[in-house]
Amino acid sequence: MKLIIALYIIGAVLWVLYILEKTRRYSPQAVLLKTCVSAVFLMVGLTAAFRSSSVFSYPCWMLAGLVLCLMGDVWLDLKYTYRNDETFWTFCGFISFACAHILFIIGILTRYGSTIRTILVVLALILGFAASYGNIKVEKQMKMNYGKYKLITFIYGGILLGITLMTLFLAISNGFHNKAINLLFIGMVLFMLSDLVLSQTYFGGEGKEAPVYLILNYLTYYPAVYLIATSILYA
Asked: What is the pLDDT of residues 78-97, one digit of tens each?
């Protein structure tokens, strides 16, 4: 656990350096620093996997999802660095994170799956996609403009809301006594909050790329992925 705490500290220092660079300018250096911060949460996951007594398949699925999160981090920052290819990098980021959550769902099912829990997962995904569809339908009332990203926003939103509800159902079914599931649930809630801020930045109009939105986004996103990585230790 001491090594994981040390990695947390290293990640926090790199995060501060990244924020300082990103709020000053969009640059390749900012992308590199963000990659380093994300690489540290992957190292947390690897450390947790080696020290975990969980079956082999669960850490593998979760680590694969974390790799895709790292890739999504890079793609989404490249959209600011290379403005001419903004659409391409944005779609790459969305797809990467959507696939990451799918791998997380598979991993969770391999470790905690049962017939009743599988039914709960299906229910969670149905509710998640229903809520995501509702969000798309009221975009004008919410003063949002998804434009060409409407379909991928709907798909990604459904998956994210689905896995958040899934971890909530699992936490409740375990009486909030399973530390790994609790960490996953908190991580997914923070992930969702991060993406709510990010959606304002991307689709909420002018003035939503101010430093406060950037800081708030990463104050929720990075704790989310670090908690997801740490959950492997307690599975």
From this structure: 887 777 888 999 999 999 99
